[in-house]
């Protein structure tokens, strides 16, 4: 994390306090449940260690419960945006993985490296930033260049399923680690064949919508909020 010019005016104690607080907010725990054909990926909600509250603002732009079916090539994801529930139903985005021979050990599993380059918008289509909106408005009417993101994944053929966390799938083994940009997802615990039977079911509540339409809905709403905030009251 780079605090830039803002951090240059802080003492080391202040920097540590800021970093500890942000670490608690930015470190998230997810659970991936899967069978041979389908998986469910969902965040474990936790309280902010300092404020004692959940991040209400962040929930509007965070990943909801995600169901992927690699056999049917289907994505179903529940999203909530300012109190309104959506059910995003779409196809899985194909990833053109380049398989390598490099290996490393994650827990007791031997993992192989794979890399891919995908459009950034495919990874966090549920998210929003003001900078993204400004860039879209500035390039309106122009041929916008697609921003690509490099992904590095580590998968284990010892668990021969094509699942992984978030948008990642399609490798000849379970993905135990994946990184892109400043984000890293790492499997910290793996339980195979649990005693309690797990039902892998897609979410089913909310207005059905595609990923593209959901993104447009967010941008439209945030643009309205910005414009209304700038109007004088009378």
Automatic annotation (TrEMBL):
Which is one Pfam family of this protein?
Porph_ging
The identity of this protein, by name, is GLPGLI family protein
Organism lineage reads as: Bacteria, Pseudomonadati, Bacteroidota, Flavobacteriia, Flavobacteriales
Source species of the chain: Psychroflexus lacisalsi
InterPro entries (alphabetical): GLPGLI
């Amino acid at each position: 994390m780079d605090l830039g010019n803002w951090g240059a005016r802080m003492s080391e104690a202040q920097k540590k306090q800021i970093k500890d607080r942000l670490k608690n907010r930015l470190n998230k725990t997810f659970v991936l449940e899967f069978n041979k054909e389908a998986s469910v990926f969902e965040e474990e909600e936790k309280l902010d260690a300092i404020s004692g509250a959940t991040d209400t603002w962040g929930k509007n732009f965070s990943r909801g419960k995600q169901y992927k079916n690699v056999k049917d090539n289907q994505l179903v994801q529940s999203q909530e945006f300012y109190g309104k529930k959506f059910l995003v139903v779409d196809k899985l985005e194909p990833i053109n993985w380049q398989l390598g021979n490099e290996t490393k050990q994650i827990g007791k599993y031997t993992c192989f490296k794979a890399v891919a380059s995908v459009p950034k918008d495919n990874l966090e289509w549920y998210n929003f930033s003001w900078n993204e909106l400004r860039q879209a408005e500035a390039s309106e009417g122009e041929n916008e260049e697609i921003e690509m993101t490099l992904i590095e994944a580590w998968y284990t053929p010892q668990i021969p399923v094509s699942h992984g966390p978030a948008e990642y799938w399609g490798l000849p083994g379970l993905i135990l680690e994946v990184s892109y940009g400043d984000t890293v997802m790492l499997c910290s615990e793996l339980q195979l064949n649990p005693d309690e039977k797990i039902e892998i079911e897609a979410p089913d509540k909310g207005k059905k919508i595609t990923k593209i339409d959901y993104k447009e809905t967010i941008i439209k709403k945030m643009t309205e909020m910005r414009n209304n905030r700038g109007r004088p009251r009378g």
